[in-house]
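Z., the sequence and structure:
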Amino acid sequence: MGEAEKDVATNRKAFHDYHVVARYEAGIVLSGPEVKSLREGRVNLRDSYASIRDGELFLLHCHISPYSHGNRENPDPVRSRKLLLHKEEIGKLIGKTVEKGLTLVPLRVYFKGGRAKVEIALVKGKKLYDKRETEKRKESEREMAKVMKAARQ
């Protein structure tokens, strides 16, 4: 039986700005107050990204607000946080990020079996015309759904 996943935050802007090439599930190293703050849903993934340094993967510019009932020992909200992946997966990511235009971006933060996880995606940036095409497609899907709903009534 699968473990239940509870989404904490999603990075909707990433789906608008990038084509997702591959997805990876990574653990994240957090302090106690950060975990409690995550459980309250106080995390912002906008403008955050992942980077590889010295063979380790780090999440940068992810804002986890200080825990509301914490004390002065709360860590910096935008500190870099280590992500946990297998060495082989990190090796593959190093090879792929060296390719032109590929970046690592967090798509969502969630709890799986009581542990905080981050879904990291290998992405390629969209051009402006790609973004416009996506918007047109979504708008036409909305219009079709509206017409279908009206036809059913």
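The two ends are 40 Å apart (CA to CA). The chain has one domain: 5-126.

Let me know what you think.
H.
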